[in-house]
Amino acid sequence: MIRKTGILGGTFDPIHNGHLALAEAAGKLYNLDEILLLPAAVPPHKKEVISSFSDRVAMIEIAVSNRTALTLSTLEHLLPTPSYTIDTLRYLLDHSGHLVEFFFITGADTFLDILSWKEYPELLRLIHFIVFSRKGCDNEKLYKLFEQLGYQQKKDAWYSRTSPKWIYCSSVTPPSVSSSEIRKRVAKGFSVDKHLPEGVCEYIQQHEIYSVR
Questions:
Q1: Is 193 exposed, middle or buried (0-12, 13-18, 19+ CB in 10 A)?
Q2: Residue 100, helix vs strand vs coil
Q3: Which residues share a beta bridge with 10?
Q4: Domains of the chain and any CATH numbers
Q5: Mean pLDDT, to the nearest integer, of 124-131?
Q6: Which residues face 35 on adjacent strands?
Q7: What is the DSSP letter of 112?
Q8: Do residues 14 and 59 make contact, with C-beta atoms less than 8 angstroms apart?
Q9: In what order do the strands lie in the sheet with 70-72?
Q10: Cα–Cα dist 96/115, whole Å
Q11: Of 95, 64, 65, whose CA–CA distance to 79 is shortest?
Q12: For 59, 102, 109, 140, which has the most beta carbons within 10 A of its beta carbon?
């Protein structure tokens, strides 16, 4: 039986409830067997990462400790940097055999930048995408991009004659939470408890992450 595995990548600096809601919604909507949370070791599109890889991993471990469908993967820490999605996916495909089908989970705002991703045509050929609308996202712009990439719509999914993989669209909108906003609030001494999984806020406070020194 083919195992359906979702991938949610990102800096996770820090991981927050929006990330978890996105992952869990994808799992339920598309019947995924598991979801990998893949923190980037050196993200190519970020000018800076505030906290260390080990701190970001520790916060994810806390966040997924009571969520059996979510699994932390530190794979990108072992691969060459910067952490490109295509390189990570090729490694996963090479080491997973033919019994795993991968689904890349992302927000619409992130997918709109896909033309800047390394080897994006090959990425679209190798993996399904699950794209969630974001508050304020221009879906018409998103759909035009799908068409530009050679996809045609079939209900809430898009297919291409040149790729065996689909792009699935969901109108489920996860909580609007921003890691950068959380970092700013922590630096100013404001509460962020409602935006973070249980235990993550305590870790940030104990290790003085994001605090102004």
A1: exposed
A2: strand
A3: 39
A4: 3-176 (3.40.50.620)
A5: 97
A6: 6, 70
A7: T
A8: yes
A9: 70-72, 34-39, 3-10, 100-107, 128-132, 163-170, 157-160, 151-154
A10: 27
A11: 95
A12: 59
d(CA 8, CA 37): 5
56-88 pLDDT tens trace: 999 999 999 999 999 999 999 999 888 899 999
d(CA 3, CA 145): 29
Question: How far is 183 from 51, CA to CA, in rounded Å?
Answer: 10
| 3-state helix/strand/coil string of 30-86 | CCCCEEEEEECCCCCCCCCCCCCHHHHHHHHHHHHCCCCCEEECCHHHCCCCCCCHH
Statement: residue 175 has pLDDT above 90: no
DSSP label of 81? S
Residue with tokens 């989970």: 105
Q: Please state the rounded mean pLDDT for residues 145-165.
A: 95
Query: Which one, of 138, 139, 160, lies nearest residue 149 by Cα?
Result: 160
Q: Give the number of other Cβ atoms within 10 Å of residue 178's Cβ.
A: 12
Model-level pTM?
Answer: 0.93
Helix ranges, the chain (H): 17-29, 53-64, 85-96, 108-111, 120-126, 139-148, 179-187, 200-206
Provide the pairing of β-strand 151-154 with 157-160. Answer: antiparallel
- Do the Cβ atoms of 104 and 36 come closer than 8 Å? no
Q: How far apart are CA 201 and CA 209, in angstroms?
A: 10
Query: What pLDDT, in 10s, does the model give residues 18-55?
Result: 999 999 999 999 999 999 999 998 888 766 667 999 99
